[in-house]
Amino acid sequence: MRYAYAITGALLLGGTAIAVTSSPNVGAQVAQNEGMQAAAPAGAPASLADMVEKLQPAVVNISTKQRVQVQNPFAGTPFGDLFGAPGGRPQTRQAQSLGSGFIISADGYIVTNNHVVSAGAEGASVDSITVTLTNSEEYPARLVGRDPATDIAVLKIEPKKALPFVKFGDSTKARVGDWVIAIGNPFALSGTVTAGIISAVHRGTGGTYDKFIQTDASINQGNSGGPMFDMRGNVIGINSQILSPSGGNVGIGFAIPSEQAAPIVDTLRKGQAVKRGYLGIQISPLGEDLADSLGLAKNRGEFVQGVEPGKGADKAGIKAGDVIVSVAGQEVTPDQNLSSIVASQPIGSRVPIVLLRNGQRQTVTAVVGERPSEDELNAFAQSQDEDFSQQPNNPSNNGQASQQSLGISAIPLTSTIIRQLGIAADTRGIVITAVDGSTDAGAKGLRRGDVIITANNRPVATQADLDAQVKAVSAQGRSAILLQVLRRGQPAVFLPVRLRDK
What we know:
It is built from 12 helices and 27 strands. The protein is of the alpha+beta class and 502 residues long. 19% of the residues lie in helices and 32% in strands. One of its GO terms (biological process) is proteolysis.
């Protein structure tokens, strides 16, 4: 880049020389930058200096010292004692992490990201947390509370005097195109200020509670936990993530919005655990295949894969196969997913839920419960790697399967097959005997021994029943059919399967 600028400068100088020697009015010429002042973009000041001067002292550097257990690669060999701890035992080494944070009270409460003050590797532990102010004063910090789900943590230091602090603003008023600034410690360069605009709001990146503010203000490693300010100097976000193939800034950074962060910070500051609403359902996004199999518009609502007995959704009458389109008056979309809406509802509150069942719109009322621990949730929900759509292509294939409508060959369940599969005795459906691996059914991992319970929300007892539903779906102009599939040792799931090309 330095070379490119040098060439540009040389070209400009050469052009100026020609202009001077060829112009008859040399004395009338003035420098291009004579008396120039940058015009302020609408809504932004000509300079951010005054605002930054007031805000910078409230932004801090956060560092941790960690102990990391490192396995000896020579353990169990004659070189184990020579290159590692005696007996090939793991070695303990020290590590450090750096991040940013901001002071929210004169007595020393500080907000940052949870990952800034957490152990960075398996087997690691955090020994100490140090906060460094802009005047280079250092303080040991105490972890008051953390919320890993939203990546927020609150620290406390004991300052010698009252500290400068900042307050949260209202991120709900933020609009795409608004100017923002970020202050933090990228690559340990303390007090670095960058500016840009809001690129998107309520941006999801795959997490359950993601509703980030996206910005093109430069955010790099070390900016984590630092504040994003609006043009009034209020904190409207906590800089948290970047999207980058190189690890450096490419103009895509994400901040946790203050509307989400502020109540969590208040709870943690009081020493309380964050509680979230819960309905007791297992859900799937309404992606293209699933939406097509239901004859619905994609990305409008979420599909209910399962309902936990005795929880709010079950008591309200919600069933597997329903599509929930709104909760408490809020539409369910990719930018505002079902989990985040329910999580924000007060525990014990009664909320109206609008759903679609067999194409019919219904409204039910559910009582919001308290979200269990992650361990309890894992006992109910399938893990991601058990999702049929994540399985590799099934190589199973034979002539019979390739002739069928979906590339699936199946036979009716019998009591003998039910015993062999180890499934409930009252299970009704057809069992797959072969799958054509070149079809969507094969690509999504359907295999011999899987049981199809329903197709197009209709019970199936024979291969003919399945083929009839495929024809019905095709006649309606849909390119996918919804199957309810049971696999041994797992709960039944709904899986959209694309029809074969005609």
